[in-house]
Structures are given as C-alpha cells and as structure tokens.
C-alpha cells in the first residue's frame, strides 16, 4: 500500500507588470481636448453621411447671394444712387451671424431629434466641452459657407471681401460671438420649456435682423428702435462695414463697444444655459426629450 504524496502548495501567481494608465487624466487638458474633438468628429461623421445636410450648407447662402445680387444689378440699371458692394457685403456678414446662431442651436436640436441628448448628458463630457465642440463644428461650417459665397460674389459681381479691409476679421468675430449667444438663448429656451420652444432656437436671429441695420442704415429706424439698436453688436458691425466701403476708416470705437457688448451677452447666455440645464435635470426633462 503506497503512501499518498502530500499536496503541493499552489504555485504563486505570475508577477504582473507595473500598472499602466488606462487613459488620460480626466481633468487634464489633453483629455478635455480629446472630448471636444470627439463632439466635432461625431457631428462631422453625421454630416459626411448626409448629402442633404451638405447640400444645405451651400444652398441657402447661394440663393440669398443671388437674390440680393440681382436686386443690386436692377438698382444699378435704374440708376439708383446705391453702391452694389453695400448689399453684397451685408449679405456676406449676415450669413456669418445667421449661421453662427443656427448651426449651434440646430446641432443641439439634432441630439434631441435623434434621442441622443440623454446619452450626451450621462457621458463624461462636461457642458463646457459639449458647447465647445458645437461651437468649433459650427465655425467650420460657417467658414465653408462664407468662402463659397465670397467666391460667387467675386465671380458673378466682381465683389471681393478684401474690400472691407482689415476690419473684416473683427467684424466677423463680433457677429460670430453674437450668433453663438443667440443660439445659446434658443437652447436654453428648449431646455426650460421643452421641444415646443424649438422654433425659438432657429428663428431668434431673425428678430435681430430688422434692428441691426443690415441692409439699411440704423438712422431710418424710429428713435426708440435706434436706442435699442445701439445695444446690438451687429448694428455697429454693419454701420462700420458701410463706413469702410464708403471709403472711411475702420470705426474701431464702434467695434470696441460691440466687442464689450458681446462679452456681456455671452456671459449672460452661458449663465442662462447653465440655469436651464440645471432646471431640466432637476425636473427630469432630459429623459423625456425626443419622446
């Protein structure tokens, strides 16, 4: 009879390699940049797979440019004392304001329509990073649309955007920031009042249009509306554009006032967005969007 061998002690587990970080520090600059670019790439992928969305980027700006271009040609044939560059310059800068507002608000609405808003809110993406991604993507679409319009304006009517001179960049910058502020107001309205308020998100910019003196001087407005216009950054931009195209110097004082107003409005609309988002979270509205 053989004696059973004693059981051998279990072999020690193999030594594990030193632990490696699984990702970037979540609050680090690189991680934040990666998340913002993720929003941009997500929207770009959706745009690339939708010929209708790509077509829309070029269609409406082109139609508006052709419409006002033909109007200016008609006025010229009727010997109306009007400079064609005034209207064409106004159309180009108006598109910066309109698309700056609409692109950011519609990008938010698309998250609602696709029932993706709740997924975005529960992801590691912060509200600031989400908005930054929307702003960057809207900036790219605005740049493409304005480039196409500028090319058409030069090819069809001989108008070059360089006629505005060094004021072109601050003019566009002021309008973009104002457009983003209006877009944030529309988003906040949807968060606070629900999807029935989504008409505000894409139409709010048109409320500004008659008061901003886009196609006519602010002086034609009634006196009370002229006072309101003084507090719209866009009115200073379009008045400054007409001054430059008439041969005057860039009105830097107007641009400085418009830039200061932009800072105030953007700070206010960011606070409004944060409040509306907090309200939607407390009321459980985020889970009901898209139903």
Structure characterization notes:
There is one protein chain. With 291 residues, the chain is mostly helical. It has one domain (36-285). The protein has helices spanning 29-48, 51-77, 84-113, 117-122, 127-157, 168-193, 198-208, 223-230, 233-245, 252-282. The relative contact order is 0.11.
Keywords:
mainly alpha, 0% strand, 291 residues
Secondary structure: number of strands:
0
Distance between the termini: 78 Å
Helix content: 55-70%
Q: What is the overall pLDDT average?
A: 82
Number of helices in the DSSP assignment: 10
Order of helices and strands: HHHHHHHHHH
Detail the poorly predicted runs.
Answer: none
Would you summarize the structure shown here?
The protein has 10 helices and no strands. With 291 residues, the chain is an all-alpha fold. Helix 2 crosses helix 5 (127-157).
Sequence-ordered SSE layout with sheet pairings:
Blueprint: H1 29-48, H2 51-77, H3 84-113, H4 117-122, H5 127-157, H6 168-193, H7 198-208, H8 223-230, H9 233-245, H10 252-282
Helix pairs in contact: 1-5, 2-3, 2-5, 3-5, 3-6, 3-7, 3-9, 6-7, 6-9, 6-10, 9-10
């Amino acid at each position: 009879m053989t004696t059973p061998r004693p059981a051998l002690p279990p072999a020690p587990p193999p030594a594990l390699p030193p632990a490696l970080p699984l990702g970037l520090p979540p609050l680090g600059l690189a991680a934040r940049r990666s998340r913002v670019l993720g929003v941009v790439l997500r929207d770009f992928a959706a745009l690339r797979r939708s010929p209708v969305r790509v077509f829309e980027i070029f269609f409406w700006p082109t139609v508006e440019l052709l419409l006002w271009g033909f109007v200016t040609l008609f006025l010229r044939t009727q010997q109306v004392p009007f400079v064609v560059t005034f209207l064409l310059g106004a159309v180009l800068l108006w598109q910066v304001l309109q698309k700056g507002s609409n692109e950011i608000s519609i990008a938010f609405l698309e998250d609602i329509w696709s029932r993706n808003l709740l997924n975005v809110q529960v992801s590691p993406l912060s509200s600031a990073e989400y908005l930054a991604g929307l702003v960057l993507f809207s900036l790219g679409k605005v740049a493409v649309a304005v480039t196409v319009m500028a090319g058409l304006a030069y090819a069809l009517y001989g108008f070059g955007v360089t006629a505005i001179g060094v004021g072109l960049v601050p003019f566009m910058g002021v309008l973009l920031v104002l457009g983003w502020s209006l877009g944030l107001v529309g988003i906040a309205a949807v968060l606070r009042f629900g999807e029935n308020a989504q008409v505000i998100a894409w139409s709010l910019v048109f409320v500004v249009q008659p008061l901003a003196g886009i196609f006519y001087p602010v002086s034609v407005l009634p006196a009370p509306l002229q006072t309101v216009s003084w507090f719209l950054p866009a009115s200073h931009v379009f008045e400054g554009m007409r001054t430059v195209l008439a041969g005057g110097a860039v009105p830097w004082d107007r641009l400085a006032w418009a830039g200061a107003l932009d800072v105030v409005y953007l700070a206010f609309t960011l606070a409004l967005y944060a409040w509306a988002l907090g309200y939607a979270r407390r009321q459980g509205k985020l889970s009901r969007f898209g139903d």
